[in-house]
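Table S2 (continued). Query chain:
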Amino acid sequence: MIELLDGIYGFTGMIVGRVYAIRDPDGLTLIDSGLARSAGRIVKQVEAAGFKANDIKRIVITHAHVDHGGGAHALNALTGAAIMVSAAEADVMRGAAEQPRPTHHRINVLPSQFFKPSPVARELHDGDVIDDVLGGLTVVATPGHTLGHLSFWSPQRRVLFTGDVLLHTLGMRFPLPMVTISRAMCGESVKTRIAPLKPDALLFGHGPPILSGAAARIDTFIASRGL
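Corresponding output:
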C-alpha cells in the first residue's frame, strides 16, 4: 500500500484494476474492492501499513463488475466494512440481478454469477455526499461503462476517483467496447460531468494515477476525441 497523496493510498500487486484507500479520523475507506481473491492481499497491505483490518470502515464501489466489486463480500466478512454502491446496481451486488450487458456482445464477459452476494449498507445517488471521507466525498453519476457507474469527487482536495468511465492505460482512453454499455455515453460523462470539475488529480480504475495537472489533461483528451 503506497501513499499517493496525503492520506490517499494505492494497493500494489492487484490481479486486475486499482483499489484505493482513504485515511480519515474514523478509519479507512476503500474505493473498489478488486477481485474476490484480492481481499486477503488488501488486508495484509493494510496491516503492513500499520492499520488493523477493522480500521476499514466502508467499501465504496464505482460499479458492479467483478474486478471492482468482486472482493466486497470477502472484505465485508473480514472487516465488517459497510458496502456502498449505486442504487442502480445495488441488486447486482446483492446477487438479486444481473448487470446489463452491452447489446453488441452476446457473451457477458463479466457475469454477475462471479459475485458472492454482498450486503449493501447504503445505496448511492448522484449528488450524495459521504460525509466522513475527505471532508465530504461527492457521488458523481458517470454512466457509460455501466448504466449505474459512479465516480467520486473530493472538492476539498480536488481529487476524482474515476472508476472505469475513463482509463489511463497507454494514455487516456475509454473502456473496451466488449465490457461497456456505451462509449459515446462515456464521452458525454467525461465532457459534462468530469471536465467541469477541473480536478487536480485523477485516480483511475485501470492505469496509473495523474497526481497533478489533471484538468488540462482531460481538456486535451476531449479535444483529441472531438467531444
